[in-house]
Write a structure and sequence with these properties.
495 residues; mainly alpha; 71% helix
Length: 495
């Protein structure tokens, strides 16, 4: 029987909706920070020149010395440009590029302030196609500018940079094409307006799909660039229309099975987590393409940076329909997941517990699979010793489990794991615990009402015996109107 079907006292709708959560707001700030770190690392990866080592001479300079040199070289650039001396222009651009690339993160502020950037962009026009060395250096400098500071992206867009680099994708020089694609990847990763523009660009999407078809033939560097641009095309809020990015799904899953580089796995896992953040149909699409096994395999990685997006992908699958959750559980998810809930790193513990909470929000047989593991014993220890943020995720697991278990499972949780004592110990500890715990108590009491013995609700009786009614009475004094009303209704109906 659906516990919300009682016409006299339905469970609060928000309680039902909070169970299986793709949880857009789950650890939003930390996840944003995690993704931001990856994005910044990617943006700056090739500042030193696609494998080239920065000149040690420039590395030893102070910032003021480098600024002075940039100003000097910028003046020289204008002189060479006026003289139409291609060889010297290339040489000057190479020096400028080496100067701004002399640090891990390119310092392009002074270069932008000199005002020569529009002139450098002009070198990317068709008139200069006969000078590949010139366009390679010019595109490299612009790439460094875009990689170093997202604030300069708008300025470059206004100067027509996006259109110029789109054209350069068809250059016969592979270095120029690589610079162009990397620049476009950074631009679309910077603003969703440019992401959506490129997703609607038939020629560009055709170019990307052609790369995907030839993926196994590409170099490792190019493979990394392709999966990075897929990630940027699929991420960002609001998410892009699924119909526009669905074409990437089979490629990402296939490449994840084949990937050997952790960097590639990270981008693919994040991309798949974006592709499965949506309705159940999106998740079902991925499940049909065997995403579950690939996701679970990734949980065996010793690399924390792989584990985080892998857990997010697993959590999304578990938040899908029953068939999706059954599929990933059938791929031995719990064998790899349960050890991660006690991982040394807090973020991974929280992510692993989030996945577990989505499983616990499922069907009774899925919950039983959790009960057959050491998960509850681990959670019990964590509630006693771990950080508040982790304890919150533990409470979600327990509440979802209590909310969705059968009568026999609830009785076992109460008698063998003292789950109610744990919940009442936390319900007054912090406001973040109140709503999930009250929702779980409502569901439990409603289940007890349907299974009264000798006219008494067995769960109401037990709650009263352990002093739970006194805790509920304390919560009636809450300043939060919603909490007050929920507690009032619980007491009024069941005690």
């Amino acid at each position: 029987m659906n516990r919300s079907s009682n016409p006299e006292y339905p469970i609060a709708d928000d309680g039902l909706m909070a169970l299986k959560m793709k949880r857009e707001q789950f650890r939003v700030d930390i996840r944003k920070e995690q993704v931001r770190e990856i994005i910044e690392a990617k943006r700056n990866k090739f500042n030193t020149g696609f494998g080239a080592v920065p000149d040690l001479y420039y590395q030893t300079m102070t910032q003021s010395q480098k600024d002075e040199l940039v100003i000097e070289k910028s003046k020289k650039f204008i002189e060479c440009l006026e003289a139409k001396d291609i060889g010297r222009i290339v040489e000057v651009l190479r020096h400028i590029r080496m100067i701004i690339s002399a640090t891990e993160i390119a310092d392009t502020k002074m270069l932008v302030e000199t005002g020569i950037v529009p002139y450098i962009l002009q070198l990317l026009d068709e008139e200069c196609d006969d000078y590949p060395d010139l366009q390679a250096e010019a595109s490299w400098v612009i790439l460094n500018i875009i990689s170093a500071d997202s604030d300069d992206v708008s300025m470059l867009i206004e100067l027509g940079a996006l259109e110029k680099f789109e054209r350069l994708l068809h250059s016969k020089n592979q270095k120029i094409v690589e610079h162009a694609l990397w620049t476009i990847a950074n631009i679309i990763g910077d603003e969703i307006i440019y992401r959506d523009e490129m997703l609607g660009n038939v020629e560009f999407m055709g170019f990307i799909c052609d790369l995907l078809k030839r993926f196994s033939e590409l170099t490792v560097t190019w493979q990394g660039l392709v999966v990075w641009i897929l990630s940027n095309l699929c991420r960002g809020k609001p998410f892009p229309e699924y119909a526009k990015i669905r074409v990437f799904l089979p490629f990402c899953i296939k490449f994840l099975y084949e990937a050997e580089e952790d960097e590639h796995k990270i981008d693919l896992l994040y991309t798949l987590s974006y592709l499965t953040t949506g309705d159940d149909d999106q998740i079902s699409d991925a499940v049909k393409l065997r995403v579950s096994q690939a996701a679970v395999n990734s949980l065996a990685s010793p690399n924390d940076k792989v584990l985080i997006p892998a857990l997010r992908l697993c959590g999304n699958i578990c938040a899908g329909d029953t068939a999706a959750a059954d599929d990933i559980l059938g791929n031995n998810l719990l064998e790899f997941l349960v050890p991660l809930i006690t991982h040394p790193r807090k973020l991974i513990r929280c992510e692993a517990l989030w996945v577990l909470s989505n499983i616990c929000a499922g069907k009774s047989w899925q919950i039983q699979l959790v009960l057959d593991t050491p998960a509850l014993s681990k959670i019990e220890n964590m509630l006693a010793t771990d950080l508040l943020e982790v304890q919150k995720e533990c409470i979600y697991c327990l509440c979802n489990m209590l909310y969705n278990s059968t009568l026999a499972q609830c009785q076992s949780l109460i008698e063998n794991y003292r789950i109610l004592e744990k919940l009442f110990a936390f319900v007054t500890k912090d406001q973040i615990f109140v709503t999930p715990i009250l929702n779980a108590l409502e569901a439990l009491l409603y289940l007890g009402e349907q299974n009264k013995r000798s006219g008494a609700n067995p769960f109401a009786k037990y709650i009263d015996m352990i002093g739970g009614t006194k805790v509920l009475e304390q919560l009636q004094h809450s300043r939060d109107e919603k909490t007050y009303e929920q507690v009032y209704n619980i007491i009024d109906h069941y005690f």
